[in-house]
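Note to self: user wants both folds in one dump. Writing first protein now.
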Amino acid sequence: MTLLATAAVTAAAAATLLGGSLSQTGTTGPARVDQPPGARAVPTVTVNLRTSTPALKKCYPSSRSQVTVGLTTDTLGKDSFVIRAWGLRARTDYTVFLIQKADPNFGAAEYIGDFTTNTKGQAVNVFYLIVEEAFAFNNATKARTDLNSIGFWFADPKDDDGCLGKNSPVTGFDGDGSAGVQMMNSGPTKLP
């Protein structure tokens, strides 16, 4: 698939969501996005994210998120990473990371981008980066750590206060070093 075709598919996904409606199959998945006519099939992997804690699930019972990765590193030198989310806090910024593990001891992490929910708590964003072979490397120890999990955090530590209270943890998962807690992660599902 050419970069132009990949962009067309992801633009269609964004237009569907940001146009005001998010059609779902039942209540667990986003709208299906078809490839443009004549586009070659790209191998993809899709991961459904889960709410990180029971307290967050109670506050956001309709929260859902799905990541679809177009595996094109070998052909284009990068992959497409499409994140879709709904049922989240409205008008809120979130930071997205590739992480070593989805459990609370996340290990190594790579900050890959942000997304912002609309007035309905929905969002979509597309990142272009190497996902299939993502890793962290410690030159001092020569240790390589694969980053095969996904997580996203409240970008502002105050944005989770309505659910967790004013003394909720402040984490470092934002560019300014001050973020809220992790909202969702990929659980036991691993990226290739």
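First done. Writing the second protein, which came from a different request thread.
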Amino acid sequence: MTSSTKPLPTPSNPVAVASDTVVAGPAIPALDRIKLFNCDEWEYFVLEWADSLRSTYSQVERCGSSGDMGRDVIAFDINDSRVWDNFQCKHYDHALRPTDIWIELAKLAYYTQLGEYTVPRAYAFVAPYGAGTKLSNLLRKPEELRQGLKDNWDGYCKTYITSTQEVKLEGDLLAHVDGMDFSIFSAIPPLRLIDAHAQTRWHIARFGGGLPPRPEVPLPPVVPDENEAGYIEQLWEAYADHLNVEVNCVDDLGDRTDLVEHLSDSRVEFFSAEALRTFSRDTLPPREFEKLQDEVHSGVKDEVRAPHNDGYARALAVVKTARALQLTSHPLVSKVSVRDRGGICHQLANDGRVKWVGRK
């Protein structure tokens, strides 16, 4: 190196590469990820979002098929089932243009004029690239949108509404188009849709990013809830089997403070698992918590069936086994505590899937 050659400067802020990035690559932003969906995935994405709006809609359905008559995701008003909204899903590789929607407007006019269904209260286009400037401006001008449909009917609609006939814009159909309210049409920006979808239980499963912090687990009430009856009854039977006396309440345990403490711990564990169930319901798709219960059940079955001196000994052994299970494949694993594992055992007992006295 000559005296005039200077060494390259060391970057002042080098990029750190996280270990998960090495394994899976950089995270794909949600706005880019939705562009990778196929048409069915896009419709289900919209369905998941619309179904979460339960204060607005009583029912949400996906019609998407060859016989949908121009409807993809439909949602019925919570106060009047005759009132409905349509979310038309268009998964194209570009921002929507007027030429992309003429056929959809034509189908709506044709099938509502025939009486197959009523005109919706609102009709929104949803597309991963959103509406282009020209279409966006047109959707704000209902009369120009109406005239655009009429002007483009022959070129984009007449031979494409049904496969069995040409549909000419004349007579009753023309009158119907002239009488329709074209202010019902709009387009939902993709970022707004993603932001709303992020509030649903489906979002993490579709986009990743990890589960949010888990809320603090509430303590059990002094008086047991009705939903605790099953596993507490099983604990009475386990204690009775252990003591060889009838046990129906805490007083029957006498001076066995270890059993009283076990009952208290079991209730704390049960409520911890119930809180995990609620957390799963709010953050993951349906049945994920039930899958976790099934996994725990499968892992403790042999211990349940194994010989034990009494029901109390069986309960202790089963919970101990549950605490040692490897649950690395489940999406909730990072949020499962030691108490949850024991609590799931008591949930299984509550549902009658395991028994402490006798074998099952």
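Dump finished. Worth passing along: Confidence is low (pLDDT under 50) at residues 1-24.
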